[in-house]
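Weekly structure sync, notes
Attendees: PL (lead), two postdocs, one rotation student
Agenda item 3: pending single-chain targets
PL asked that the sequence for the first pending target be pasted directly into the notes so everyone works from the same version. It is reproduced below exactly as submitted, 120 residues in total.
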Amino acid sequence: MASRKETLARRANRVRRQLKAVANGRPRLSVHRSSKNIYVQVIDDVAGRTLASASTLDKDLRPSLKTGADTAAASAVGKLVAERAVKAGVKDVVFDRGAFIYHGRIKALADAAREGGLNF
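Predicted structure, written out during the meeting:
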């Protein structure tokens, strides 16, 4: 039987493999969720560099959040990363949820990023 870590790594690899097939050169909006915070990056896989990033640990965002581990924090991070990505000239991305299920904080972040101007 596979350990939890192996199962999550296998799921993340499966999601990323499917994304690469449909990406067509679009940057990837990668999400990582921990028990205390949420982190997001817009990554250009062709050039191998990060175009925009945001997290609940950002100095701009931290004072306005009650905690970094709820849906309100996730939606604030989604709006912030969308604003930074549009400023960097990125409108169309593919959403990389990694090994995390599209539910709760991940869904709140995605919805806020869409409202902020990202298309995926």
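Discussion points:
- The mean pLDDT is 95.
- The longest strand covers residues 38-44.
Action: rotation student to compare against the earlier draft before next sync.
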